[in-house]
Design brief:
Strand order of the largest sheet: 3-2-1-4-6-5-7
GO molecular function: undecaprenyl-phosphate 4-deoxy-4-formamido-L-arabinose transferase activity
Protein name: Dolichol-phosphate mannosyltransferase
CATH class: Alpha Beta
Shape: globular
Order of helices and strands: EHEHEHEHEHEHHEHEE
Helix content: 25-40%
CATH topology: Spore Coat Polysaccharide Biosynthesis Protein SpsA, Chain A
Oligomer: single chain
Distance between the termini: 39 Å
Number of domains: 1
Number of helices: 8
GO biological process, one term: lipopolysaccharide biosynthetic process
Keywords: Cell membrane, Glycosyltransferase, Lipopolysaccharide biosynthesis, Membrane, Transferase, Transmembrane, Transmembrane helix
Radius of gyration: 19 Å
Largest sheet: 7 strands, mixed
Protein backbone atom coordinates (compact mmCIF):
# COMPACT_ATOMS: atom_id res chain seq x y z
CA UNK A 1 0.00 0.00 0.00
CA UNK A 2 1.32 3.43 -0.97
CA UNK A 3 0.51 6.41 1.24
CA UNK A 4 -1.11 9.43 -0.47
CA UNK A 5 1.26 12.21 -1.52
CA UNK A 6 -0.57 15.12 0.17
CA UNK A 7 0.10 16.22 3.76
CA UNK A 8 -3.18 15.89 5.71
CA UNK A 9 -4.36 18.27 8.43
CA UNK A 10 -6.32 15.49 10.09
CA UNK A 11 -6.09 11.69 10.17
CA UNK A 12 -9.25 9.76 11.02
CA UNK A 13 -8.29 6.38 12.49
CA UNK A 14 -10.84 3.55 12.59
CA UNK A 15 -9.90 0.13 14.00
CA UNK A 16 -12.40 -2.55 12.92
CA UNK A 17 -13.08 -6.23 13.24
CA UNK A 18 -15.94 -7.84 11.31
CA UNK A 19 -17.71 -4.61 10.39
CA UNK A 20 -18.93 -5.57 6.90
CA UNK A 21 -21.94 -3.46 6.02
CA UNK A 22 -20.69 -0.44 7.98
CA UNK A 23 -17.70 0.54 5.80
CA UNK A 24 -19.33 2.40 2.93
CA UNK A 25 -21.97 4.31 4.96
CA UNK A 26 -19.39 5.54 7.48
CA UNK A 27 -16.92 6.61 4.78
CA UNK A 28 -19.64 8.59 3.00
CA UNK A 29 -20.44 10.44 6.23
CA UNK A 30 -16.78 11.13 6.97
CA UNK A 31 -16.23 12.52 3.46
CA UNK A 32 -19.09 14.99 3.96
CA UNK A 33 -18.18 15.94 7.54
CA UNK A 34 -14.46 16.47 6.86
CA UNK A 35 -14.77 18.41 3.60
CA UNK A 36 -14.03 21.66 5.47
CA UNK A 37 -10.89 20.10 6.98
CA UNK A 38 -9.35 19.01 3.68
CA UNK A 39 -6.80 17.71 3.07
CA UNK A 40 -7.55 14.80 5.41
CA UNK A 41 -6.95 11.06 5.38
CA UNK A 42 -8.81 8.07 6.77
CA UNK A 43 -6.78 5.15 8.11
CA UNK A 44 -8.73 1.92 8.59
CA UNK A 45 -7.06 -0.88 10.54
CA UNK A 46 -8.58 -4.30 9.84
CA UNK A 47 -7.89 -6.22 13.04
CA UNK A 48 -8.14 -9.80 11.77
CA UNK A 49 -11.66 -9.68 10.32
CA UNK A 50 -13.15 -12.95 9.11
CA UNK A 51 -16.10 -11.47 7.20
CA UNK A 52 -16.16 -9.22 4.11
CA UNK A 53 -14.66 -6.20 5.89
CA UNK A 54 -11.33 -6.28 4.04
CA UNK A 55 -12.89 -6.74 0.59
CA UNK A 56 -15.25 -3.82 1.27
CA UNK A 57 -12.29 -1.67 2.29
CA UNK A 58 -10.40 -2.60 -0.87
CA UNK A 59 -13.38 -1.64 -3.01
CA UNK A 60 -13.81 1.65 -1.17
CA UNK A 61 -10.12 2.52 -1.47
CA UNK A 62 -10.27 2.30 -5.27
CA UNK A 63 -12.59 5.33 -5.28
CA UNK A 64 -11.01 7.40 -2.51
CA UNK A 65 -7.36 8.55 -2.70
CA UNK A 66 -7.51 9.73 0.92
CA UNK A 67 -8.38 6.25 2.25
CA UNK A 68 -5.61 4.00 3.56
CA UNK A 69 -6.07 0.38 4.65
CA UNK A 70 -3.82 -1.39 7.15
CA UNK A 71 -4.30 -5.07 7.97
CA UNK A 72 -3.23 -7.00 11.08
CA UNK A 73 -2.29 -10.62 10.44
CA UNK A 74 -4.28 -11.60 13.54
CA UNK A 75 -6.79 -10.07 15.94
CA UNK A 76 -5.00 -7.96 18.58
CA UNK A 77 -7.82 -5.85 20.02
CA UNK A 78 -9.03 -2.27 19.78
CA UNK A 79 -6.12 -0.64 21.61
CA UNK A 80 -3.61 -2.34 19.30
CA UNK A 81 -5.66 -1.32 16.27
CA UNK A 82 -5.70 2.29 17.44
CA UNK A 83 -1.96 2.35 17.99
CA UNK A 84 -1.26 0.83 14.59
CA UNK A 85 -3.52 3.38 12.92
CA UNK A 86 -1.96 6.32 14.75
CA UNK A 87 1.54 5.11 13.89
CA UNK A 88 0.65 4.97 10.18
CA UNK A 89 -1.23 8.28 10.30
CA UNK A 90 0.60 11.37 9.04
CA UNK A 91 -1.41 14.29 10.40
CA UNK A 92 -0.51 16.01 13.69
CA UNK A 93 -4.10 15.67 14.95
CA UNK A 94 -5.96 12.36 15.08
CA UNK A 95 -9.68 11.61 15.28
CA UNK A 96 -10.62 8.09 16.39
CA UNK A 97 -14.06 6.64 15.67
CA UNK A 98 -15.67 3.27 16.22
CA UNK A 99 -16.37 1.41 12.99
CA UNK A 100 -19.97 0.44 13.78
CA UNK A 101 -21.54 3.78 12.71
CA UNK A 102 -22.62 4.60 16.27
CA UNK A 103 -20.30 7.65 16.30
CA UNK A 104 -21.59 10.45 14.06
CA UNK A 105 -18.72 11.99 12.03
CA UNK A 106 -20.62 15.30 11.91
CA UNK A 107 -18.99 16.10 15.28
CA UNK A 108 -15.43 15.79 13.93
CA UNK A 109 -14.93 19.47 12.88
CA UNK A 110 -15.95 20.86 16.29
CA UNK A 111 -13.79 18.35 18.15
CA UNK A 112 -10.86 19.06 15.84
CA UNK A 113 -11.27 22.79 16.49
CA UNK A 114 -11.29 22.20 20.26
CA UNK A 115 -7.81 20.63 20.03
CA UNK A 116 -6.31 22.74 17.23
CA UNK A 117 -7.54 26.11 18.48
CA UNK A 118 -6.85 25.17 22.09
CA UNK A 119 -3.15 25.47 21.40
CA UNK A 120 -0.33 23.15 22.35
CA UNK A 121 -1.56 22.83 25.94
CA UNK A 122 -4.80 21.11 24.82
CA UNK A 123 -4.13 17.42 24.23
CA UNK A 124 -7.53 15.75 23.91
CA UNK A 125 -11.18 16.35 23.10
CA UNK A 126 -13.19 13.39 24.41
CA UNK A 127 -16.66 12.58 23.15
CA UNK A 128 -19.34 11.81 25.74
CA UNK A 129 -22.41 9.97 24.48
CA UNK A 130 -25.94 11.21 24.95
CA UNK A 131 -29.03 9.24 23.99
CA UNK A 132 -27.29 5.88 24.46
CA UNK A 133 -28.49 3.11 22.11
CA UNK A 134 -26.63 0.20 23.72
CA UNK A 135 -29.49 -1.30 25.70
CA UNK A 136 -30.08 -1.45 29.45
CA UNK A 137 -27.54 -4.13 30.35
CA UNK A 138 -24.67 -2.53 28.45
CA UNK A 139 -25.54 0.91 29.77
CA UNK A 140 -25.57 -0.49 33.31
CA UNK A 141 -22.06 -1.89 32.81
CA UNK A 142 -20.85 1.47 31.51
CA UNK A 143 -22.38 3.41 34.40
CA UNK A 144 -20.65 1.17 36.95
CA UNK A 145 -17.27 1.28 35.16
CA UNK A 146 -17.42 5.05 34.61
CA UNK A 147 -18.53 5.69 38.19
CA UNK A 148 -15.73 3.63 39.75
CA UNK A 149 -13.12 5.04 37.37
CA UNK A 150 -14.20 8.63 37.95
CA UNK A 151 -14.02 8.33 41.73
CA UNK A 152 -10.57 6.77 41.66
CA UNK A 153 -8.88 8.69 38.84
CA UNK A 154 -10.83 11.96 39.19
CA UNK A 155 -10.53 12.53 35.44
CA UNK A 156 -13.69 14.70 35.20
CA UNK A 157 -14.96 12.57 32.31
CA UNK A 158 -18.49 11.18 32.34
CA UNK A 159 -18.04 8.57 29.60
CA UNK A 160 -14.56 7.32 28.79
CA UNK A 161 -16.07 4.29 27.03
CA UNK A 162 -17.04 6.52 24.11
CA UNK A 163 -14.78 5.62 21.19
CA UNK A 164 -14.99 9.13 19.68
CA UNK A 165 -11.85 11.10 20.55
CA UNK A 166 -9.59 13.72 18.94
CA UNK A 167 -6.02 14.15 20.18
CA UNK A 168 -2.46 15.13 19.27
CA UNK A 169 -0.55 12.34 17.57
CA UNK A 170 2.79 12.94 19.27
CA UNK A 171 1.17 13.03 22.70
CA UNK A 172 -0.69 9.74 22.15
CA UNK A 173 2.44 7.93 20.97
CA UNK A 174 4.31 9.13 24.08
CA UNK A 175 1.77 7.49 26.42
CA UNK A 176 2.46 4.03 27.88
CA UNK A 177 0.75 1.48 25.65
CA UNK A 178 -1.39 -1.32 27.06
CA UNK A 179 -4.55 -3.20 26.14
CA UNK A 180 -7.46 -0.97 27.18
CA UNK A 181 -5.53 2.31 26.91
CA UNK A 182 -8.38 3.97 24.98
CA UNK A 183 -10.63 3.85 28.08
CA UNK A 184 -8.15 5.86 30.16
CA UNK A 185 -7.00 8.55 27.73
CA UNK A 186 -8.41 11.54 29.70
CA UNK A 187 -6.59 10.53 32.88
CA UNK A 188 -3.32 9.76 31.10
CA UNK A 189 -3.40 12.93 29.00
CA UNK A 190 -4.00 14.98 32.17
CA UNK A 191 -1.10 13.12 33.80
CA UNK A 192 1.17 14.50 31.07
CA UNK A 193 0.10 18.06 31.92
CA UNK A 194 -2.25 18.64 28.96
CA UNK A 195 -5.79 20.03 29.08
CA UNK A 196 -8.72 17.72 28.30
CA UNK A 197 -11.94 19.10 26.83
CA UNK A 198 -15.26 17.31 26.32
CA UNK A 199 -17.98 17.31 23.70
CA UNK A 200 -21.41 15.72 23.92
CA UNK A 201 -21.96 13.47 20.89
CA UNK A 202 -25.17 11.78 19.82
CA UNK A 203 -25.08 8.00 20.07
CA UNK A 204 -26.69 6.03 17.24
CA UNK A 205 -27.80 2.42 16.81
CA UNK A 206 -25.28 0.03 15.30
CA UNK A 207 -25.96 -0.16 11.57
CA UNK A 208 -24.79 -3.74 10.90
CA UNK A 209 -23.03 -6.59 12.70
CA UNK A 210 -22.83 -7.29 16.43
CA UNK A 211 -20.94 -5.81 19.38
CA UNK A 212 -17.56 -7.33 20.24
CA UNK A 213 -17.81 -6.59 23.97
CA UNK A 214 -19.49 -8.42 26.83
CA UNK A 215 -19.43 -8.38 30.61
CA UNK A 216 -15.99 -9.93 31.13
CA UNK A 217 -14.07 -8.05 28.44
CA UNK A 218 -15.58 -4.67 29.37
CA UNK A 219 -16.21 -4.49 33.07
CA UNK A 220 -13.86 -6.79 34.99
CA UNK A 221 -10.84 -6.38 32.70
CA UNK A 222 -11.37 -2.61 32.81
CA UNK A 223 -11.35 -2.64 36.59
CA UNK A 224 -8.02 -4.48 36.58
CA UNK A 225 -6.57 -1.91 34.16
CA UNK A 226 -7.85 0.81 36.48
CA UNK A 227 -5.49 -0.33 39.23
CA UNK A 228 -2.51 0.00 36.88
CA UNK A 229 -3.51 3.47 35.67
CA UNK A 230 -4.09 4.62 39.26
CA UNK A 231 -0.53 3.51 40.06
CA UNK A 232 0.87 5.37 37.05
CA UNK A 233 -0.85 8.58 38.06
CA UNK A 234 0.34 8.33 41.67
CA UNK A 235 3.93 7.82 40.47
CA UNK A 236 3.87 10.81 38.10
CA UNK A 237 6.32 13.61 38.84
CA UNK A 238 6.60 17.02 37.24
CA UNK A 239 9.91 17.33 35.42
CA UNK A 240 11.49 20.71 36.23
CA UNK A 241 12.49 23.17 33.54
CA UNK A 242 16.05 22.59 32.38
CA UNK A 243 18.75 24.36 30.46
CA UNK A 244 21.99 23.33 28.85
CA UNK A 245 25.01 25.27 30.07
CA UNK A 246 27.17 26.05 27.03
CA UNK A 247 30.87 26.78 27.08
CA UNK A 248 30.77 30.56 27.20
CA UNK A 249 27.34 31.23 25.61
CA UNK A 250 23.73 31.84 26.55
CA UNK A 251 21.78 28.91 27.92
CA UNK A 252 18.55 27.66 26.39
CA UNK A 253 15.63 26.97 28.74
CA UNK A 254 13.49 23.89 27.90
Amino acid sequence: MTAPTFEPRLSVVIPVKDEAGNIEPLLAEIETACAELAPFEVVYVDDGSTDATFSELQAARARRPWLRVIQHDRCAGKAAGMRTGVRYARAPIIAVLDGDCQNDPAFIPAMYAAVFEGGETTGLCAGQRIGRKDGRFKSWQSRIANGVRGRILKDATRDTGCGFKVFRRDLYLALPHFDGLHRFLPALVSREGYRVTHRDVVDRPRLAGVSKYGLFNRLWVGLMDLAGVWWLIRRAKTIPASREIPAGGTSEVR
